[in-house]
Amino acid sequence: MIKLNEKRLIETFVKLAQTDSESYDEGAMQELVARELKEIGCRVTVDNAGKKYKTTAKGNVIGFLAGTVKSAPFVLCAHLDTVTPGKGVKAVVKKDRITSDGTTVLGADDKAGVAIILEILRTLKEQKLPHPPVEAVFTLSEEVGMFGSKNLDCTKIKGREGVILDGEEIESVLVQGPAVNTIEVWIKGLATHAGVSPEKGISAVEVAAYALTQMKLGRIDKDTVANFGIIQGGQATNVVMPEVYLKGEARSLVNEKLAKQTASMKAAFEKAVKRFTKKIDGKICKPELKFVAEERYPAVRIAKTHPVVKGAVAAAKQIGISLKPIACGGGCDANVLAGKGFTLPNLGTGVRGYHTTKEYLLLKEFFAAFHITLGTLLAYKK
After folding, report:
1. Rounded CA gap, 318 and 323, in Å?
2. What are the pLDDT digits (tens) for 188-204?
3. What is the DSSP string of 197-262?
4. Catalytic residue set
5. Which terminal residue of the chain has fewer beta carbons within 10 Å of its beta carbon, N or C?
6. pTM of the model as a whole
7. In this structure, what is the dihedral angle of CA atoms 198, 203, 205, 210, given to the nearest 10 degrees?
8. Which pLDDT tens digit goes with each residue over 142-165?
9. How far is 237 from 354, CA to CA, in rounded Å?
């Protein structure tokens, strides 16, 4: 097994963890990671993603390390931001784990991934290991909508295969994640006094309620789910509700199933509009409907037989870990970058309790994640 400088890896993580980088405020972290990469000997560039939305950072950081083996570049990716509360983190190093002091998150999601990538680059240089070219990509604002990866300047990156380090347990590698459509619906009925002339109104909430009873929600099939989580409307209890707004989503591991589910949801609202169209004072009155479905991010579907996945499984086996390819119901940079032509299975780093003040990083798994990632990289050749 290649020797890991465990002390240095921990020190790097602590330095990263104690640098403030809540989403939209990653400027200091961007500058720190760029400096670290330059000290290692990488060529560094920062794109202009930060100009595309409101953040203190200039852009995504990309480090380039020349290869010693002829191959396409291998991509290593992690994100720089953390959730709140993430300011003033005090990392506490214990015998088997690292925690915060309990007043903030630790930020191992995803600074554990950042630290591992930096240590891999140092190890490649110091131990003169034969390796393909490496492109290290550090993205902004993943936690709040993957804005860094959505605005990544892909022309600066030649590689299209590699791994993302943004998972939990090291026994799994994420190879499937759903595409998601955000769905917004506006229904406009007809207001009237609910106590005096309710028959002369059209209740927008009744239209919405009827539509919801006509569609499948929750678990649609093994690949697909749908839900409405926000409903807003109404002025007073004695007024037939004139307008209502609904917001929901549909998710599926299969793009065709997502399109079908989204279309069926739209059709249910259209059916409801017809159902509540009626004649009032001799005039045909029809509810107005606006249905907008917008892709939040595309699906990830990586074959279990893909060389990078097989390389990760083999690297894990070398250190006695059985790595299992899995699917999940959430989204991350892997989804967005899949839509841009990247194939990046998502590896775990040993973090637990992420997004809470009880977050911690298991050192044994943290070190193992280094070996799995490095082994995957060293086996890559294309």
Report:
1. 11
2. 999 999 999 999 999 99
3. -GGG-B-HHHHHHHHHHTS--EE-SSSEEEEEEEEEE-S-TTB---EEEEEEEEEESSHHHHHHHH
4. 81, 142
5. N
6. 0.91
7. 100
8. 999 999 999 999 999 999 999 999
9. 43
